[in-house]
Amino acid sequence: MAAGSAVRSAAGRAGRIFDIFVAEVPWTVSSKELREYFSQFGPVQRCQLPFDRDTGFHKRFCWIKFSSPEGVQNVFQKDSHILEGAKV
């Protein structure tokens, strides 16, 4: 993962939340594609890909929320992640 990537674990009302921040997402990648890609590492509860109101394009970063810490650990066991030819 790129240096801009980080993991955040926080206590929430329903228990623990396991999110990763993914930077440098190619313009052509959709939230559906991100969800499908990261699902190979564990169950994805949510994929949040924010859009810019002015341009209509996504902001090239997202948050992936996993159901368990194992999903997050599995993501970080892989050295790099490539989506549509670009390293995220």
TrEMBL record:
<keyword id="KW-0539">Nucleus</keyword>
<dbReference type="InterPro" id="IPR034152">
    <property type="entry name" value="SLIRP_RRM"/>
</dbReference>
<dbReference type="Pfam" id="PF00076">
    <property type="entry name" value="RRM_1"/>
</dbReference>
<dbReference type="GO" id="GO:0010468">
    <property type="term" value="P:regulation of gene expression"/>
</dbReference>
<protein>
    <submittedName>
        <fullName>SLIRP protein</fullName>
    </submittedName>
</protein>
<dbReference type="InterPro" id="IPR012677">
    <property type="entry name" value="Nucleotide-bd_a/b_plait_sf"/>
</dbReference>
<feature type="domain" description="RRM">
    <location>
        <begin position="18"/>
        <end position="88"/>
    </location>
</feature>
<dbReference type="InterPro" id="IPR000504">
    <property type="entry name" value="RRM_dom"/>
</dbReference>
<keyword id="KW-0694">RNA-binding</keyword>
<dbReference type="InterPro" id="IPR035979">
    <property type="entry name" value="RBD_domain_sf"/>
</dbReference>
<dbReference type="GO" id="GO:0005654">
    <property type="term" value="C:nucleoplasm"/>
</dbReference>
<dbReference type="GO" id="GO:0000785">
    <property type="term" value="C:chromatin"/>
</dbReference>
<dbReference type="GO" id="GO:0003723">
    <property type="term" value="F:RNA binding"/>
</dbReference>
